Amino acid sequence: MAAPLQQSLENRKTERFATVDVVIPVYNGQQFILQALASVVQQTCAPQKIIVVDDGSTDNTAALVRGFASPVPLEYVKQSHGGLSSARNAGIARCTGTYVAFLDADDEWYPGKLAEQLRIMQNTDLPDLGVVYCKYTIIDEKGDPTDSYYVFELDTTVRGNVFSKLQDSNKIASSGSGVMVRRDCFEIVGGFDERLSAYEDWDMWLRLAERYDFDFSYEPLVKIRRHAANMQWSSSHMLVNQLHFYQKWLARLPADAACYSRWRLDMAYRFVTDWQGASVIGPVTQILSKEERRALFGRTFGSFRLYLVGAIPWIAARFIGKRAKHAWNKLLYKARIRRSVMHRRKGQL
User: Fold this and answer.
1) Which of 73, 95, 153, 304 sits CB 3.0–4.6 Å from 49 for a disulfide?
2) Is the CATH code 3.40.50.970 the one for domain 5-231?
3) Which position has the higher pLDDT, 189 or 230?
4) Cα(267)–Cα(20) distance, rounded to whole angstroms?
């Protein structure tokens, strides 16, 4: 890790009065921005300030934010539309606190979110803790818990030096809304990659994990909202960003990195499960250079087509297994939701 243990422990002593700045990027978020803001000001441990970065909204977002009666200092920043990463970076640039916590404008926090992550930050046994993430729950447009979506289970082994564990897939549960980061980490690794309009979170967690330790709260601290507007990215858009992400990290990781086998399988899985599967091949050859394709599909002379010939039987088995696992996890999640509702009802009697 980047800093010696003793230096890190000394830093902890100075963090008894640590402060947290909250960054909320928003674009045409009038439907949910007030709920997001309310969840921040209702924290049991109040942040130092809230920075709302309006990424070129054309709806009523500005009026709603400016009219919000916040007991916490609230800074509203309007910028031209540049995307999520651009808005987050603009917010980070205005932060002065010890820590930065992100909240997407359509998500919400549980009241103890900041307090719990601060407790972990300040009482850790890890030598150079830079990031704390958490479990999450899914809510619908009305803010009610829903079992209609898969909940990514938190992997308890993703703690400490997690760089190698994050290379094959993004294992940080709760997305950006559940993450707290030491502000000085961004001075070393830089901001979110504004060239990526998807996979930007995974890219940032990897860059942070190269230098800093990660920890987590096993308690759900954030509510991730699923609604029509935040599920509109096309398959082709996701594929292009996936390839640009691979391109970036192919240049940074060793030629024999173990994660490449998972990346190959993910590409083949996308080919099999996408209703326009054949359209995957074109971007692979257009975006990745011959050298990059050779690194990724080396055993088949850099040919994605040849790789598919051998991989499809494995992918079909994986697809069936994944569907079965998803169905089982959904049943377990429904059971947890039912128990939670029953407990609430009993408490009201």
Assistant:
1) 73
2) no
3) 189
4) 39
